[in-house]
Amino acid sequence: MKLSLNKIMPGILFNALLLLLLVSTNAQAIPAFTRAHKVECSTCHTVYPELNEYGEAFLKSSYVYFGKGGKSAKPKETAPQPAKAAAALKPAASGADIKGAGDADTLNKLKAGAMRATDGSYEETAAVSPPPQTEESHPAKAAGPKAEGLLLAAIPEQLPISFSGSLHGSYNGNAVNEFDFSSRAFKLNAGGNFSDTIGFFGTYLIYTENAANISNTSQTPTNMTQKNDIGELFLIWRHALGTPINLKIGRLQPKLGLWKSNNKLSVTNSLAPYSYTVGQSVFRIEQPQDALEANAVLANRLFLAGGVVNRKHQNAKEGYGHISYKFGGADFNANEPDIDLNKDESIFDFLTVTVGGYGYFGTNGTPNTTAGVSPTQNKFYRTGLDLDLLYKLFRVKLAGVMGRDDNPELSLTKKAVKSYVAAVEGQYSFLQNLIGSLRFEYQDDGRGYVRRYIPTLGYTPLENVKVAVEYKHEIATSYRLTSTSPAQDFTNRIGTLGVTFSF
Amino acid sequence: MKRLLLLTALITLATYSLADARVKVKGRGDKMNFDPESVDASFRPSMDLMSKKCIKCHTMERTVIAIQTGRAPLTGQPFDKQAVKAYGIKMLRKPNSDMNKQEIRELVVLMNYLLDENKR
After folding, report:
1. Is A40 in the same domain as A177?
2. Which of A407, A409, A476, B19 could join A414 in a cystine, given CB atoms 3.0 to 4.6 angstroms apart?
């Protein structure tokens, strides 16, 4: 009896996921922000790398932990070292059970650990109970001049880098090569802050394969420039001159939609309103740009951003703006809502709604900076509206964008194209580390109509390892793959098993 | 001899004072927890609730250290009554925390009691 791979593939995917479910154990994630702040990945993420509201607040705080910032370095402070301190205060503290009654000696060590980790009172607590004089924990090394020197130099004690990799296997019945297990990407990430004053972030795509378009499987992170290159690299001057305004400069994803490109459950499929292109124009909402951006959180719940983009070889400035407001839930500074615990439960105790709107206008095309050469230009704009609704275990994301390009095919005879793209995604948290979602996308990009149905199941057996099973049902109607090709109907059915990990 | 007696009395008093200063703790590492015997009987059900629910996401060691030191051990943020309420609300809203408002209220009251006891 000959088994068809088409029939057994769903079984293989299911069993692979089941195996991962069975062998998994709890563990701590360790990428850069986790290392720096000693918190679990789940502090900021739902199923990594999708952000929860605290992750959004951390992002808006320019990678400075909630409640901090605005203070200059103090000479007496020591850099955070809770990991070492915590290690020292456990069994090493006394080697015996805590006897109750406060067990003064051990509790002093507990305090020493926590205090050293936080407010730099190492000297005082060390006097009460010095840590074991090991090579690593010797005061001269652990919190002595070196740490103070690092602090004064505003250099993070931990090297703020991490790596992430992704491996995908996919099945596409329409492809000549039905099974494709060759998709992988490896990326370096760096991020953090210098003395709570300057935030920084960078990503470098070390290696990737394949590119994404409508006719094949979307395999690689599409926020990248689809080559080995810097994805983002920017600095942020937090609270410039004591104002609420943060100034951001470098290559960055302009703040337009509510979610950054990697802020999603899916490992492969970017949100269509953010990732679609029109004609020959490569512009995407989520595309990193060379930009200067000013943003600010006002009254804790209003976020404003605006910026200027300078496209290479284009002597024309582009501009954008964003506004969003959050109703309910923790605010943009991660302050919890004031819920009266003495009253009965109300729907408003759990309801969080964030609405955002944005606009972008720009010009791209052939260079307009070469003397004597007439450029072919495309002037375009995009305007969009997003909504993020969270209620207990349910989450709904809505995104819609419309745009106009006056010459997206970059031809001598201009032909304007209007585009309308929308997506709605519903999510449900089955477990803290298991989320399912169903997304519908509608795309009218001037070449035809595409509808996509994308169910996804994301699971993190460990906080820094994500397994996602996805299916994309893509129906194209009267779609032209190029401007000159005939319109045709086609359907893609693509299944993907993806694993993403960070360390 | 008088000095010796005085010294002994002082040490005894100091030790007694320390012994009564905090709610007793037993175990170490992941097993660390408040000793239910040292908690007022009216709070025992809340202690049981805390020991069952809170360990779903973190060890009780984290809670004990926060109460004893007045600092959240991972973040270093102050852990006072205001913070306790904020953490309570955060846990109430946290998906899959499996705690309702009534339970959160009980735990907030319990932790306020533990903070008070720790200050004595």
Report:
1. yes
2. A407
